[in-house]
Design goal:
The chain is mainly α. Helices cover 61% and strands 0% of the residues. The chain has 6 helices and no strands. Helix 3 crosses helix 4.
């Protein structure tokens, strides 16, 4: 019986000393996390993991916040890839590339020739006459009975 009481008292003493050291270590942890070395980060994480194995009602608010930050905070692989203003940079970059491509297209088109000779209205009408003489597409096309379309004459 005395041994059990001594163990409980010994464990309580460890918990109090751990609680004092841990409380100092976890205060404002979110702001200090990036400045801590990897060994210190691992030590704090293990201390909090051990503290979480006990009763959560005993944990302080700082310990609960620190546990949440270590588990789900924006650090390590969960650190945001993009920074502030990234969306604006991407938008302006896309607009710039589109403007450059439109300018290049206009430059190339301005140096191009006139329409090909096959795009003239006379050529397209001649194509229609040739296809009618060859009886091309007699079921539903230009050579069919009662055809009312324009055939190959475009604008």
């Amino acid at each position: 019986m005395f041994r059990a009481a001594a163990r409980v008292q010994q464990q309580a003493g460890r918990a109090v000393s751990r609680r004092n050291a841990s409380t100092v270590a976890v205060q404002n942890l979110e702001a200090r996390w990036k400045t801590l070395s990897t060994a210190e980060q691992n030590t704090i994480a293990k201390q909090l993991e051990e503290a979480q194995k006990g009763d959560w009602k005993v944990l302080s608010a700082d310990e609960k916040k620190a546990s949440y930050y270590i588990a789900f905070g924006p650090h390590g692989p969960r650190e945001p890839i993009t920074g502030p203003g990234h969306t604006q940079k991407v938008f302006l970059g896309v607009v710039g590339v589109l403007a450059a491509s439109a300018g290049l297209f206009a430059l190339i088109r301005s140096g191009g020739k006139e329409k090909p000779h096959t795009m003239s209205k006379e050529w397209q009408e001649a194509t229609n006459e040739y296809l009618k003489s060859q009886n091309s597409n007699p079921i539903s096309g230009i050579s069919s009975e009662g055809y009312k379309g324009k055939g190959y004459v475009g604008n």
